[in-house]
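User: Show me a protein chain along with its predicted structure.
Assistant: Here is one chain, sequence first, then structure tokens.
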Amino acid sequence: MAFWAEDVLGIYLLLDRLKWILGGMLIPVGLYPEAVRRLVRWLPFRHMIGGPAELFVHFSWDGAAALLRQQALWLVVFGVICVGIYRLGVRRVDLNGG
């Protein structure tokens, strides 16, 4: 995002706080209303924080394999997004004489 915004600290802080709240670090996801829980199921934050924490408390090899598959899927998704954003940003910098 630094290609478009001069200072990305605000974006970092926003994503970090979202990770804390929606990942279950501050409030367990089970305490949220049903609509928020449905939203959290579609976001990667539970695979970053909630999934490993739950696996630590109730370990199973099947759960560990499922969590690793989900994390690998999110890694591929965000890798593709990052490559696309990077290419757009490099093209923008080249156009501006960078």
